[in-house]
Specification:
By secondary structure, this protein is mainly alpha-helical. It has 11 helices and no strands. The longest helix is centred in the middle third of the chain and has 28 residues.
């Protein structure tokens, strides 16, 4: 079952939602290095409150990144608008943008929220720490672990429920849930192969003219190949 789901990585290499979500991660972290132009760069990327948001105007910076929760909400909105415009929405794209926002929240929440509250400066500082070679490597690893776990769980869920019950692979729902937790840990272990590789790629291409969507497309495909190989050769949950 797991092997068949892993084969879906070939399709994932061309998924607009996955590629664009990762591209935005490269852009917002790098934007945090711009002391004065951070918010404007987010707006240029479409990461801004919806026109229907309360207490905001097109010219206002309020609500763009006052908290990490504002940022991830606006990040999701930017990807949604892109996919709607292009007609490229997919289940995998939804999984990818959720993985991106969960990674941002997990890695930035503590730094962005201080004893004195949260504001654009604290959010920018939290993102700045992910803009180094090691910081982006950590973000990339976390993103691909979450995305892969979500992708495999989504595909396996269509079949796993048929294997729960007396005399079946999973005797009860708790055994089924143990497998899902084991799968998530398997994905996190596999994603460790990206740590050094992703940090080097990020630093190199930001130094050499910046990261484009085209460069992101090539890198995501290479990263998925590495994830696929790691998943296939490092063992996995018993039910795989």
């Amino acid at each position: 079952m797991l092997e068949a789901s892993i084969e879906g990585f070939e399709r994932a290499k061309r998924d607009d939602g996955l590629i664009y979500s990762f591209y935005l991660l490269t852009q917002i972290t790098h934007a945090a290095r711009n002391q004065d132009g951070f918010i404007q760069r987010l707006r240029d990327l479409g990461i801004a409150p919806s026109p229907l948001a309360i207490h905001t105007t097109p010219e206002s910076d309020a609500g763009v990144a006052d908290t990490i929760y504002d940022l991830v909400a606006n990040f999701t909105n930017a990807v949604d608008q892109r996919l709607n415009r292009r007609g490229t929405r997919s289940d995998l794209g939804e999984i990818a943008v959720r993985a991106a926002t969960e990674s941002l929240t997990a890695l930035c929440e503590d730094r962005a929220s201080t004893l004195f509250g949260s504001n654009q400066e604290t959010v920018q500082d939290a993102l700045y720490r992910l803009s180094s070679k090691s910081g982006f490597a950590k973000l990339s690893q976390d993103f691909f672990a979450r995305m892969t776990s979500g992708f495999l769980t989504y595909n396996l869920s269509k079949e796993l429920s048929n294997h729960v019950g007396p005399g079946r692979r999973f005797g009860d729902i708790s055994e089924h849930n143990d497998f899902i937790r084991g799968l998530d840990q398997h994905c996190r272990s596999a994603a460790s192969v990206l740590e050094e590789f992703s940090g080097q790629w990020y630093s190199k291409h930001n130094f050499q003219g910046g990261i484009t969507e085209r460069k992101t497309f090539g890198w995501v495909g290479h990263a998925l190949d590495k994830m696929k190989s790691a998943l296939q050769h490092s063992g996995g949950p018993d039910a795989a």
